[in-house]
Design a protein that fits this description.
The chain contains one helix and five strands. It is an alpha+beta fold. A hairpin with a 6-residue loop joins β1 and β2. This is DUF3107 domain-containing protein.
Length: about 80
């Protein structure tokens, strides 16, 4: 699952791949925002990203589409 996080006053967004499902990610973000603390997410390589929820502009959760391999023939 791809996660894009916009941070206030930052020119680029943070992008990471997570092992969590979209439902689990949404719950994690909602809990962090409700608590007013820190959003903690771990990417597929085990790196931990921590962001103060006060600085989060937006969070976008996007299901990763599988890559198409090979050729397709339309009839």
């Amino acid at each position: 699952m791809e996660v894009k996080i916009g941070v206030q006053y930052a020119p680029r967004e943070l992008v990471l791949e997570s092992k969590l499902s979209s439902k689990d990610l949404a719950e994690t973000v909602e809990q962090a925002v409700a608590s007013g603390g820190v959003l903690k997410l771990e990417d597929e390589k085990g790196r931990l990203v921590m962001i103060s929820v006060e600085k989060i502009a937006y969070v976008e959760l996007a299901a990763q589409s599988p890559r198409k391999v090979g050729f397709t023939v339309d009839s």
